[in-house]
Fold this sequence. Notes:
Chain A is of the alpha/beta class. Helix content of chain A is 39%, strand content 17%.
Amino acid sequence: xxxxxxxxxxxxxxxxxxxxxxxxxxxxxxxxxxxxxxxxxxxxxxxxxxxxxxxxxxxxxxxxxxxxxxxxxxxxxxxxxxxxxxxxxxxxxxxxxxxxxxxxxxxxxxxxxxxxxxxxxxxxxxxxxxxxxxxxxxxxxxxxxxxxxxxxxxxxxxxxxxxxxxxxxxxxxxxxxxxxxxxxxxxxxxxx
Amino acid sequence: xxxxxxxxxxxxxxxxxxxxxxxxxxxxxxxxxxxxxxxxxxxxxxxxxxxxxxxxxxxxxxxxxxxxxxxxxxxxxxxxxxxxxxxxxxxxxxxxxxxxxxxxxxxxxxxxxxxxxxxxxxxxxxxxxxxxxxxxxxxxxxxxxxxxxxxxxxxxxxxxxxxxxxxxxxxxxxxxxxxx
Lengths: 192, 180
């Protein structure tokens, strides 16, 4: 009886092996379809060449970025679908450490874009810049959107395409704070 | 020594069962590989089914009774695989392997040639093993091998599911915007 049960376990495990193989194949098929449709959020590195290591203000970006220890400057365009999806995900506010440059064809298209996603100078904390006629993009040599530039210690460090809100959230400079009461001395806590 | 022999038996049986089960599941894919190797189109499906059956049979035989005829068949299979690798290398042709399923990215060639001495070494170890009573019953050994194979496969399936979930989340974000 025990032998028969063990044999049954073996046979069932082999069946599970085959079924898992079918599942893996299905996942690969779906991934292939996604790749063909271009809906995978795979970021691509942007080659910065001479722009790497320069101050953001050199390219017409706000001088406040030159003093920023860490920030992401996201270039959006009013003509790109992913840019609209990203702007829709802001819910009218920008996450800490995120700056947005909107590349717009003209003032009217910029206003329409900002109104649609409820982005104002106040709600974004002054971290929104409208680049009509694409002067900043021209200075950097940027031809693609959405692209995120990482600023480290006041210098442009790297850049990648930003294919989704999920990816944008993952590259934002999030600070994790220790939750410590000011009244409680550190040594007391350590003893506990 | 007995434990080492057991490990070699398990490894060889696991590889043969994995390859056999995957080929049975996608026998047309393996037949296409055989056609690329020069097997006549009419004979390729039958040969593909036969190779899969032989792999499964020998894999089980190694577990239930690792007799010398079974080891001779293993040597024959290893030689056939090495010949297939050699043909691919000499033709300088990129032929998808399909050795362990239809979705592998490996190609026929050096891998099969490298595996040949390992197969022969394994056969030699089992051929020369001392004849003692087995440490574990054949049914238990089959269960161990099958559970190991299923576990490896399940882990891959779980990783694939996690990756697909991430892709789906990203796509949902895009669709939310499109519906506006």
